[in-house]
Amino acid sequence: MSNEPKATERLKWWTEARFGMFIHWGLYAIPARGEWVMYCERIPKAEYACLAERFRPRRFNADEWVALAQEAGMRYLVLTTRHHDGFCLWDSQVSDFTAVKSAAQRDFIAEYVAACRKAGMRIGFYYSLLDWRWPAYWEGPEKDPEGWAEFREYVHAQVRELMTQYGKIDILWYDGAWPHSAEDWQSEGLNAMVRRLQPDIIINNRSRVPEDFETPEQHIRPADRPWESCMTIDDLWWGYHPGDPNLKSPRQLVRNLVKCVAGNGNFLLNVGPKADGTIPAPQARRLRAVGEWLRRNGESIYGAGPAPFGQAHLGQVTAKGNTVYVHVMFWPGREMCVAGIKNRVQRACMLATGEELPFEQQQDRLFVRGLPPRAPDPIDTVVALELEGEPEAIPASFWK
Ligand code: GLC
To answer: Is the CB of 35 under 6 A from ligand 1?
Structure first.
């Protein structure tokens, strides 16, 4: 496509942003047993549809979601416009199963987009290709070619709506292509249409076409192309499920974020709002704690990437320009050794306090001294090392 900006240009803001909020919200928040409840409990379509008549999220306030994302230090949001259950949070003309045509009578996507835009936050749309309510999805294109064609038309029409009715959208986050192929979905054509309508948009890999970025789920695995790891805040659930007691601690969340950046990736952290539209307080508390940490240590995350050497005995290392950031998650006591830096070190300081630290370089070993006996920041104390020139490593061949 002639005027399509190059992928690296398109991805620039996203790569620098590093941290986003994923939001799974829909009818499944009412039974509160996760976003797969319809499938897991084999709830008949008609029974599930009754939830739409009970879905009146009186406390939904998109500005509050966006404000929380900002407090958490996130730079973009991705919201489920429609999950696998088929319920649309926007005013879709090709479906009757929408928030506008049921009890809520609201276009939540319009409200979400307006709130993001007002706050200057980047806007992402999650969209599930599959829709459990369509028999043709289960039959597939071979067994039911006509039904499939109709279903696929519905999917394409919905993507077109999302790409035309809400102004500029920054991310299209597909899901649920399985078990069908890119040809079955006609993903190439679909994405060509998306790019015509939204020339700057970035698209994930889940329409079975690689597009702009990879999406490792529930794990962190660096790739040799742009990637974003998405993760639940509890053990397993994307949609609200208070039965999962295992919320990740702020320290675990920061650790995951740092691990992503150290591997040159992004971190998309999920929250599952309740049926009334509010983000559960325990989830919000953890996000705010991450945000506090980011306010002190953000320069080691935003616009940062991998360093040419790791320091597994201390934690992770990120880098930006001539500075490397040692994320000390396993506090070593009053002195720490960072090994393998080829450059001269000019300055060492703790981001949390701004305090400069004395250091000594002995060949490829750097000793940073004068550390407090206990970690000043139990979440992750970042020691910034300013180097002469861009960071370079000495490989660990000194035993030879
Ligand atoms: C999976 C799940 C889904 C969730 C998504 C997030 O595909 O089916 O519930 O939305 O992952 O990555």
So the answer is: yes
Domain 307-387 has CATH 2.60.40.1180: yes
Give distance in angstroms: CA of 110 to centre of ligand 1. Answer: 23
pLDDT level of residue 1 (50, 70, 90 thresholds): very low
Longest dimension (CA), the chain: 73
∠ CA 166-167-170 to the nearest 5 degrees? 100
Quote the pLDDT of residue 219.
Answer: 98
pLDDT, position 14: 98
pLDDT for position 26: 98
**Percent of the chain's residues with pLDDT above 90:** 94
Superfamily of domain 7-300: Glycosidases (3.20.20.80)
Domain range summary for the chain, segments of one domain joined by +: 7-300, 307-387
Closest atom, ligand 1, to C-alpha of 24: 10
Residue 18: φ, ψ to 5°? 65, -25
DSSP result, 338-368: EE-B-SPEEEEEETTT--B--EEEETTEEEE
